[in-house]
């Protein structure tokens, strides 16, 4: 089995082919027979896991198991306590309530590579950075959640997926997971297998 993580840049599709000639994973990754575990929108950035492990992919994407996904989100405006409370408790998106989320305001701008092209800021409106941790992955969920509380998303980066994180990767770089990381990931996805081995 192969497992790798990729720091997806802005503007790259989470697929290996595109008839319109846009940037895809093929422009960065030449490892055969691996496929993205989930997706990031073209206008989102950050951690993307790729693998040929179908069982692990199915387990990570199944919302019943509540695997954590953490995002840094630059939003337009200053979040009030009411906004943060709503995000934590769940907001209504397309007639469905989101699950409760962990949310905090980052005390300073995170250390991230510049985006190309840069975001379009309005000088008269301040921006803020939030850290959101979700246990589900609906289509464009983070953007819809922040919009629902009046905080449009300007930039969105996934920084963690379960035990995996972006530390040490530059934008556009990828690497194979270490054996330790693979073990941590499989332990999170299949904890019952570890218990079975420990107590035969």
- The overall pLDDT average reads 92
Beta-strand proportion: 25-35%
Question: Which structural category do the helix and sheet elements fall into?
Answer: alpha+beta
List the domain count as a whole number.
Answer: 2
Helicity, in percent? Answer: 10-25%
Poorly predicted ranges: 195-200
> End-to-end distance, in Å?
25 Å
The CATH first-level class of the largest domain comes to: Alpha Beta
How large, in whole angstroms, is the Cα Rg? Answer: 18 Å
Largest sheet composition: 9 strands, mixed
Choose one word for the global shape: globular
Number of strands: 11
Order of helices and strands: EEEHEHEEEEHEEEHH
CATH topology (fold) name of the largest domain: Alpha-Beta Plaits
CATH architecture of the largest domain: 2-Layer Sandwich
Q: How many helices does DSSP assign?
A: 5
By CATH's scheme, which homologous superfamily of the largest domain applies?
Answer: Pseudouridine synthase I, catalytic domain, N-terminal subdomain
């Amino acid at each position: 089995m192969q497992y790798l993580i990729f720091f997806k840049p802005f503007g790259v599709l989470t697929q290996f082919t595109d008839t319109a000639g846009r940037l895809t994973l093929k422009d960065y990754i030449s490892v055969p027979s691996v496929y993205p575990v989930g997706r990031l929108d073209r206008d989102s950035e950050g951690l993307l896991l790729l693998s040929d492990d179908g069982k692990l992919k199915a387990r990570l994407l199944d919302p019943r198991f509540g695997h954590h996904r953490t995002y840094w989100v630059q939003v337009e405006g200053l979040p009030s306590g009411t906004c943060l409370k709503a995000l934590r408790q769940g907001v209504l998106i397309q007639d469905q309530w989101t699950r409760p989320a962990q949310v905090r305001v980052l005390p300073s701008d995170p250390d991230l590579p510049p985006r190309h092209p840069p975001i379009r800021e309005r000088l008269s409106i301040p921006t803020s950075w939030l850290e959101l941790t979700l246990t589900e992955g609906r289509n464009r969920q983070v953007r819809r959640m922040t919009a629902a509380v009046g905080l449009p998303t300007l930039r969105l980066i996934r920084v963690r997926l379960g035990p995996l994180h972006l530390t040490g990767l530059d934008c556009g770089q990828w690497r194979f997971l270490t054996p330790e990381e693979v073990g941590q990931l499989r332990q999170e996805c299949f904890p019952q297998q570890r218990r079975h081995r420990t107590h035969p």
